Every structure is written in C-alpha cells, then in structure tokens.
Amino acid sequence: MLSDRDLALKSLQYRLQTLELIHSAGAGHTGGGLSCLDILNVLYNRILRVSPETFGDAARDRYVQSKGHAVEALYVVLADRGFFPFSDLETVCHYESDYVGHPTRKIPGIEQNTGALGHGLPICVGMALAARMDRTGSRVFTLLGDGEIAEGSNWEAAMAGAHYKLSNLTAIVDCNTLQISGHTSQVMNSEPLDEKFRAFGWGVRVVDGHDLAALTEALSGPAEADKPTAVIARTIKGRGVSFMENVAKWHHGVPSDAELAQARTEIAAAIAALKGGAL
Amino acid sequence: MFSPEAVALAKECGLVMGRANLEEFAATLEALARADRNVLAVTSDSRGSGKLAPYGKALPEQIVEVGIAEQNLVGVAAGLASCGKKVFAVSPACFLTARSLEQIKNDVAYSDNPVTLVGISAGVSYGALGTTHHSLHDFAVLRAINNLVVVAPADNAETAFAVRAAAALGKPVYLRFGKAAVYSLPGDKDLALGRARLVRPGSDLAFIASGETVAHAHLAAEKLARTHGLQARVLSLHSIKPLDSAAVLAAARECRAVITVEEHLVNGGLGEACAALIAQSGARCRLHIAGIPDEPTVSGSQADIFRHYGLTMEGLHAAALKLLA
After folding, report:
1. ipTM confidence
2. Domain map (residue ranges) of chain A
3. pTM to 2 decimals?
4. Is the peptide bond before B242 cis (omega within 30 degrees of 0)?
C-alpha cells in the first residue's frame, strides 16, 4: 500500500494531469473533477479490490461513477493504475475516439456507461444484490454529486438499499456545494444530507473529502451493520488551484494556456512543499 | 375481444383459444428459472399483475421486489445483469417504457446490459383504466433506441419462443404482452427473432400485424376469402425491431395492398416502420396503417377501443375492401 505521503503526491499529480487533459481536450469538467480526485485516489489506491488483471473477475469490487461528468479525473486515475496507457488520453473527445466526455464501458476499467445523473445508485443496488446472491464478497461503490442528489431515482435506490440491508454498498456524495447554475443550497437545497440518508435507513459518515486518512477510514467498511453506507464528503470545487476553488464557472471551464501555467506552478509548489516537508 | 361472428368464424377455422400471453410468459419464465438459478424476475409491485405470484412462491430467491419505483426497477435490473444475472424486469408497459425510458436508454441499451424488459398489460389492455395506463407509445420510443430488440408476440407459441429467445440472446430485449386470452394461430412453427411468421398465405393483399391484433387480422383474412374470394396474406411481425424487411418488401411487391395493424398509436410504430421501408425500396403498393389515431383515445374496454378504431375482424375487413376498391 502507498504511504500517506506517496498517496498525497498522487493527489497532486492527478490534479495536474486532469488539468492538462482538459486543456488538451479543450473540454471537460474541471471543478467537479478536482473536488472528487482525493476520493478517487483513495478508492483506487487503497480500497477497491480491482486491477487491470482482475477486472474480469466476478468477485472484484465495483465502482460506478454516477457523476459521470467528472470523467477526466477518472481517466487519469485509471491510466495511473495501468488500465490503459496515458497516451490514449490524447484522443479524449476526438472524432471516433472511445474516450468520450462521460464514462463508457469501451474504456478498460469502467463498469457502466454513465452521464445522465441519478443512474449510478440504482445500478449499484443491483450489483450489491448480485454480490450477495453469489456470495462473492464484492463491495460496490458509487460517487454522486450533491447537485445530482436532486434526482428522485437516487431516493428510490436509497430506499431499496436500506430495505435489502446492503452493507456491501457505499454511496459517496461529493459535496462541493456548487452546481452549474450556482450554489446547490440556492438551486435546490439537498441538505441536511446526513439526516436524509439516516432517515432512509443508511449508516452515515461525514468526512473532509480532501483528508486522505479520513477517507481511507470512512471507506474501509460499513458504517453500521446491516445497512448501506453513505459517505458525505465535504469537498471544495476546483480544489488545489487557487483561482478555481469555489467558483461555479469552473464547473466546465477549460483553462487557457496561461491559466494552466499558473495551475502548474501552484501544484508544483505543493509537490515541492510535500517532498520538502518529508525530508 | 371478439364479436360473436368472429368467434363463430374462428371456430369454423379450427382456431383454439389459448391463455393470455402474460400467463404463458409467467409459466415459461418459471420453467427457465427452475433450470437456471441466474434467471431472476425483478418486479415493481407487479408480481400479481405479471402473473408471477406462483413464481415468487416457488422461487423466492429468484425474485427481487423494488416497490413502486420503475426507474429503480430498470437500474437495479441493469446492475444485476452486469453481474451475470439473466434478468426479466417486469412492470406495466405504460410505466416501464415512459417513466424509466432514460434507464432503458442508458443503463440497459447503451451499457449493453442483457436485461429483458417485460411490458405487461401493454397497448390498451387496461382499456377502461384510461390513458395513464395505456402504452401506445412504446414501439415508437423503443424503436428510436439503438441496441434494443423489440418483440410483441401474437399467441402463446410466439410468447414461449420470445421468452426463451430473450433469455438466450444475452442482449437488451423488450417483450410486450397483453392480458387477454388469445387464439393460437396457424402457420410457421419454426420461429426466429427478426423473422416474420407467415400465419396465412395469400397475394391479393397482406396484413402485417403484431401482438394481439394478429388474430383479428387473420379472421379478417378468412372473412375476405369467404365474402369476396380474396386471399390475404397474414404476417405476424412479432419482432418489431429488428424488422423482417425481406418479408415486408415481399408483401409490398407481391400483393396489391398492404395493411399494417398494431395496438399502438399510428405514429412511429410498426406501420411507419413498414412504410419507410417500402417507400425507400421503390416498391409501389397501396398502404393503410391501422392503429390508434393521434387523438385523445376513446374510453372503454380493450374490445371497445379495438372496435372503435377498426382493429377488429370487422374493421379490418372493411378497411381491406376500401383499400382495394
């Protein structure tokens, strides 16, 4: 397992690679990608029992990215985990490329086609039921956005997850508090999310979604016996780049050359500080 | 569903009344599930209306109830199917193909999860319950989705075939069943998805029908033979998609007129699919699309609605004579 410091370095590296990818593709979801990268980092480097070699195994853990628009962050993490070469990402959003702007199963490592919101959790309820029927021991994870929570299908699935006591199911909500038209609290308030999930019969953990140790602990097992787990991850949209943080326009803003250069400088400084601090 | 005259003619032709396709579906599914523990039914408080109560009692581990939540029904079914389950997602066609259309499009068809979507009590089976409970749009919307086979069986033999074929196909399928008892039809016994079933030969005109309308078309053909000496071909297009283009075009080329018949709005269904095919082929024939017109649907039972819109033996007989005049 990666050390805490190496894991933290991965987060910084992923941030830079995600920005570079969106810049070269000329499109992408920047803010929400940066807000969920630490979650993806912990999932793929610490939690999920899945690898390129075991992706065909029935007993693998499953991850379905319900907030499919943050696909660039997922592409970067999957490439880093060896599911495909980084060079594949040069074709993201290009004519006839399999690497489109939302997850598809054409890409190694991706479980389901997503992009329309409110689909991941119902699918994961089905996967978790199948894992229990077949006694595979698989755990099933999905990542939702806090804006996405307004989709009613999530709550149909939340009811079913609790009804069937799916303790192998974890829903992570990337609560970055912003959606495309502004503050989630103003567009359609979804809070208090922890109370909502509790009321639906879920075990709930509320964590700092950029605290890698806290995420590792929160995702390591069910919060309560015989209940699915909701991990409410408090995050910052655009996390890690000063001028992107908490700015709604970076939902799908594409950095210019100058903005990418500035972001690169900031992230390089953070990497240097991390490396220096450990010396 | 059938007038006394139609019942008498059916008897004269040796047609035997079978059970409802929905009951045949449930029995076939139970047989499949007993032989394969990976076969699952997923229901949205619909096991009673899907005739699956005996299945649920016999195989409680192979039925998943999601409550009245059709979006979740299809999403859960997709998740189960992605893990190797052979899933039949069963819900009234009116809700399944409207409320959960996005789940059908993305989670089943686009993600290529081998779910069999079972639209029960389809068309105007729920007649008098009103428009909320009618599915007169399902062919149209599902034809417009890539990677989805759409099947509307006419009789018990086609139903049993379709259920087994769907389970074996390993691809997204939509099956559409009515709840009225249906006649067992003559004709081809060797069935295949994507291939029309020749129910009755003839070349004066052709009825190209689907689902529960096929029996009415067949009786209309028999009546035309008796009243006017006309020999009408009757094709059961159980596969709406893929459509048997060869059979449709052969009918258009070999017959003087074609009447398509469907328990569906005339917009976007079997008739328009055939019309597009025929028009683009250069074949020339008279064509009438029999179905439910684009208007507020008349109230009444399924039989009332069929009669009102000319989908019964009598209505189709009259339509044929008018088209050939």
Report:
1. 0.95
2. 4-276
3. 0.96
4. yes
